[in-house]
Amino acid sequence: MHSETAVTANAPVATKLPAARPPRPSTRPNGQWKIDGTEPLNGNEVWKQVDNGIAVRGRIEEIYSKQGFDSIDGTDLHGRFRWWGLYTQRKPGIDGGRTATLEPEELEDRYFMLRVRIDGGQLTTEQTRVIGEVSRDFGRDTADITDRQNVQLHWIQIEDMPEIWRRLEAVGLETTQACGDVPRVFLGSPVAGIAADELIDPTKVIQEIARKYLGTDEFANLPRKFKTAITGHPSQDVVHEINDIGLVAVDHPELGIGYDLWVGGALSTTPRFAERLGAFVAEDRVSEVWRGVTSIFRDYGYRRLRGKARLKFLLAEWGTEKFRRILEDEYLGYPLPDGPAAPRPKTQGDHIGVHKQKDGRFYIGVAPFVGRVSGQTLIRLADLLEAYGSRRLRTTPHQKIVVLDVAEEHVEPLIAALDEIGLSARPSLFRRSTVACTGIEFCKLAIVETKQTATDAILELEKRLSTIDAPHPITLHVNGCPNSCARIQAADIGLKGQLLPDGNGGSTPGFQVHLGGGLASVDREEAGLGRTVRGLKVTAENLTDYVERLVLRFLAARSADETFAQWAHRADEEDLK
């Protein structure tokens, strides 16, 4: 548990986290396999034991794609399809007020969201072009870069899935376990293997874990989703504090460069940051340590109540000392050496702008609007990079793109060309630092619209705040529901979608406001949650006015080196409204 600390001009804010409590003591078992046995205790656990989702690929190809949407078994549709990156998307025209009142089947369309899994965010131009072509040919030209380095497409029909898989897999891409109760995409540093200041390249260990465990039965039935983040870059650029397992590069005084191990992070409605186990993991031990932590979750994770079926709840019960002891004694068979914490980052982790690679060439980080691109944009991006001599790019956990291997003489011409297709290497304050989830346009859980709302706000703020001199990026995260896919509690300004009274007896889209959250960065020593002020809500219509007012108040009231987060935590409530 993080404790309250005093706020000074040079110290980051640390906010006490609400407890991610384990289930209350009960005579009923919690569904922990190693304690209670493997008898299923709810409907989800029943069907996962009957068929853990991997085999549904065959039924999609041989039955459903040939016989159409109406032939799909309900459990496959609402459960096992996720193991292959498929969710039904929201039916158009259903307003946010009906999200909680309708059954999922009433909200869903006959089309799918398809998530393309991109471990480490690593893409070739050929792969990028193929994703763009799949989007163009089968997804109405939709494409969103997520804050987990994937690409999501929409309007996908079940009849087209065999051809989509054929195209993706022909260039080494997959949708395997992109969703579901499985190890999700492995976040990796977007500058792995190229940054001049990198400590260690995690690409090899990410590929090893994927090769050994992705798509296998060993981890195809976890209590819930399991998220991984691994970085070798000192900017700590993979949001490791909100992943189930995080590995952050450190330089051990005796053992050399390896990784610091974190476990148990996740946000959603009960946020909890991951905690250090104090253990040092050598590069050649990463795969087995990952397997050990994932196995603990599989064997000891709570399965009876899905609302408690994340690793953070087990960590809350055990604590870090017991967790490390179980990992070492039951799963590794050897002790891990103690290790140091990674030092505070000295550079921004979004990699926006122009940076020199270790080989003398350059990489360029560019920003679309809140991750939204299109199939045509991806195709044009691939063509542009190849025309300027590059064949590699990366997606980032901040909904951005990093293009690699650019010769010095091509940097400025390429920046100009990228800007013409909506990808800015020198974005405005808010274009750089705004993240938005899918929202009500496609998501069955959403209450309000997000992508366009955020984009409209960015464009207006660019006009109104074009002359300000902000001391650092101010993160604005927009979420369409309470589940925090856009990491609202870990943003300077976090917005949780809800319906607000419109003053005429009805409702209007709006947001509850969280202020002053963030993860470890150049601006703060450690992660901390945003502050909530009772009654602090803003309508979508008034969002731009509110953000403008808030930023100007911060700039007028801040002390010499004070960050937005520090100011937001010390400011009077009236100054935050």
Automatic annotation (TrEMBL):
PROSITE patterns: NIR_SIR. One of its GO terms (molecular function) is 4 iron, 4 sulfur cluster binding. Pfam families: NIR_SIR (PF01077), NIR_SIR_ferr (PF03460). It is an enzyme of class 1 (oxidoreductase). The keyword Heme applies. Residues 1-42 are annotated as: Disordered. Belongs to the nitrite and sulfite reductase 4Fe-4S domain family. It comes from the Bacteria. Keywords: 4Fe-4S, Heme, Iron, Iron-sulfur, Metal-binding, Oxidoreductase, Thioether bond. Catalyzes the reduction of sulfite to sulfide, a step in the biosynthesis of sulfur-containing amino acids and cofactors. Residues 109-171, 355-420 form the Nitrite/Sulfite reductase ferredoxin-like domain. It catalyses: hydrogen sulfide + 6 oxidized [2Fe-2S]-[ferredoxin] + 3 H2O = sulfite + 6 reduced [2Fe-2S]-[ferredoxin] + 7 H(+). Residues 180-333, 432-574 form the Nitrite/sulphite reductase 4Fe-4S domain. Its EC number is 1.8.7.1. Its cofactor is [4Fe-4S] cluster. It comes from Cryobacterium serini. This is assimilatory sulfite reductase (ferredoxin).
